[in-house]
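Need tokens for this chain, all 221 residues.
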Amino acid sequence: MNKSKPFVGHYNPADLITMGGLICSVVACFLLAQGYYIASMSLYILTLIADTVDGKVARKLKISDPHEKSYGIQLDSLCDMVTFGFVPCVMAFMLGYNSPFDVIIYAFFATCGVIRLAHYNTDAVLAKPGEKHSGFLGLPIPHSCLYFILMLDIHLLTVSADGVNGFVHWLFRLFFLGLGVAFILRFNFPRPNKNVMMFLGIWMVAQFLALIIIVIAKGLH
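Here are the structure tokens for all 221 residues:
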């Protein structure tokens, strides 16, 4: 560990990408509160891209310092917790899904996210050199971003001057409850191959295009 550095932590390209994703998610949260739906979700998608790219960059860097390597693992999970475990809850709360029961569900969702990430970190730290896993135990927490834009689309299509739609309100509750359980459920989730990654990319683009159409049709931002 280099104690001559003026700041704690490491700032290699992979870690900077991870922190950039965190910043995008926080700004996206505030933009959503102001009603800038397209700008908000654009940044939220960038967050998911950053989370996908940072690991690949880290592997290409071939970091040998164990402290820096472990730091990157911890940083990634801490940022994931905020980005994919807390930000979706805040966004849903600001959209009007903010009853006491909703808050309990958000607390459950966030707790499951913490458990999932703590388990992942433990496996990563204790893994033997060169050891690779064919998949993940439980649903990876970034999946909350993969489906949140769809939930926002549904919300914008159904919200009225009277407030949120009752059916959609329960849909949001099931969304967070279902994902929370999936985070900690003991099942093997395979690593996505190129075809799956391409499908997920098309899925995100489709959700985002639907959002643009809805926003324009309703005269929103």
